Amino acid sequence: MVRGRLQSDRISVRDDLEAVNRLFYTRQWTDGLPIIPPTEKRVQTMLEGTSRKPEEVVGCIPPRWGEATVEKIAINAVMAGCQRTYLPVIITAIEAMLEEQVNLYAIQATTHPVAPLVIVNGPIVKKLDINYGSNVFGQGWWANATIGRTIRLILVNIGGGLPGKLDMATHGRPTKYSYCIAENEDENPWEPLHVERGFDKDTSTVTIFAGESPHNINDHMGTTAEAILSVAAETMVNVGMNQIWKFGGGGESLLVLGPEHAATIAGDGWSKDNVKQYIYENARLPVYKLRGRVMYRNRIWPWWIDTASDNMMVPVVQDWKDIMVIVAGGPGKHSVCITNWMTSASITKAISP
Amino acid sequence: MEKKGIRTALVASSEFAVMADVECESLGMSSLPIVVVPHPVGGLKEEAVREKADNALEEIIHVLTESKDKLSQEYREKVYTKQKEALRGRKSFG
After folding, report:
1. How many domains in chain B?
2. SS3 content of chain A, % helix, strand, coil (to 5)
3. Which of A84, A228, A241, A253 is at a distance of 20 to 30 A from A22, taking alpha carbons?
């Protein structure tokens, strides 16, 4: 079904996959991997995945402030290899990351390693077959790979986030190719993230969290909640991670519990809030490890931190409610922590068609 | 700040001058003067920072005091290049 005349420029290229990719690559429109040529027919087909009009402006993507129309989003989705049913997830993800609290401009331009993690909840997870189990942060699922890839292509092609030009990441991360997961609601012993945030269980949502790469929390010994979470807490505070300079003063920290760890913790009668409070009390570093290091001078320390007191323990976030907890992954005695990019706050939005 | 009528001197390190230039263009201020200092400016000993500041001072004063029209002409066509070519040429494959 034709959704109206598309507005984007037409480019004539020899009908050859290599010729198209050579052109797109030299014009810096890719992520380095081959793309699917966004022909008019493919873009029109992709647009069937949404009821929104192609000319609708979803928002302007920093730092170049390019206009992300539904059409432009669809073009990047074709390039990434998406199925059209993924388009509502992508559009909602873009809307979410353009909210002021996410601070997308800073995420795009910073030297720090950070990418917007897309976390999907609700019935759409199974409908679109978004992976939430084994290898959840890895390869293998069409939805995870291409939804995340589309986000990155949009940030580059519409936002102008070219490496070394407007995207000043010193090293970047593999998560900048694609960073999209779903929560394992089947094996979550507590309420899933979107319900915790006030949405109905049957509402499908996207959460955006500006994160470093996932870091393993390996604990094969703990048979109690405290034993497992003590390892988690110590893993979540390493000097040199993104969050250190905001210690005690802001940001969030994400704990992705593997199902087996979650089952042990919940089996001891701990609630999700208990987990967050424990992490808040124990994921701390003493002042002397922070003083004069990392980005010490780049902030005003909260009044309650006595920077003259060597052993005063500074929490990784300002409030225990800033610890986020979700359940994802497959069998195994592992969990994951993902540190925040400090001046960004996560957001959850309902997916609209 | 310029739009609020406060004279400013935008100082960027050589590795970030291109970004500053593109951002100025995106915000409709493509002829805004950018004073470029050698990268890096962070993580240096104080004397090294002072030396870079001293070397940039004359241009900063010029940007703060010269007429905006003259500055606009002077900086409009200026091409800011990076110290190292970070934008690796996207070579086409054979």
Report:
1. 1
2. 35, 15, 45
3. A84
Q: Is residue A8 part of a domain?
A: no
Closest CA of chain A from B91, distance in Å: 6
**Residue A3's pLDDT band (cuts 50, 70, 90):** low
Report the candidate in A57, A320, A91 with the shortest Cα–Cα distance to residue A204: A91
Same domain, A177 and A234: no
Contact across the interface for B26 and A64, Cβ inside 8 Å: yes
Q: Do B90 and A168 touch (CB under 8 A)?
A: no
The complex's ipTM?
0.76
Nearest chain A residue (CA) to B81? A165
Distances (CA, A) of B39 to A219, B25, B54, B62: 43, 22, 15, 21
Q: Which two tokens stand for residue A119?
A: 């976390």
Are the Cβ atoms of B26 and A25 closer than 8 angstroms? no
Residue at A122 is within a domain: yes
Q: What is the separation of C-alpha B75 from the centre of its chain, rounded to a whole number of angstroms?
A: 10
- A197 and A245 co-located in one domain: no
- Structural domain including A194 reads 17-212+346-350
Of A28, A63, A162, the CB nearest to B23: A63
Judged by CB atoms closer than 8 Å, whether chains meet at B86 and A26 is answered as: no
Quick check: helix, strand or coil at residue A184?
A: coil
Q: Which of A268, A180, A154 is nearest to A222 (CA)?
A: A268
Q: Quote the number of domains for chain A.
A: 2
Are the Cβ atoms of A164 and B91 closer than 8 angstroms? no
Three-state DSSP state, A65: coil
Which of A30, A165, A294 is best to mutate for the B interface (most B CBs within 10 A)? Answer: A165
Which residue range is the domain that position B47 belongs to?
2-76
pLDDT-derived band at A136, boundaries 50, 70, 90: very high
Chain A residues with CB under 8 Å of B87 CB are: 162, 164-165
Half-sphere exposure of A353 (CA within 13 A, CB side): 3
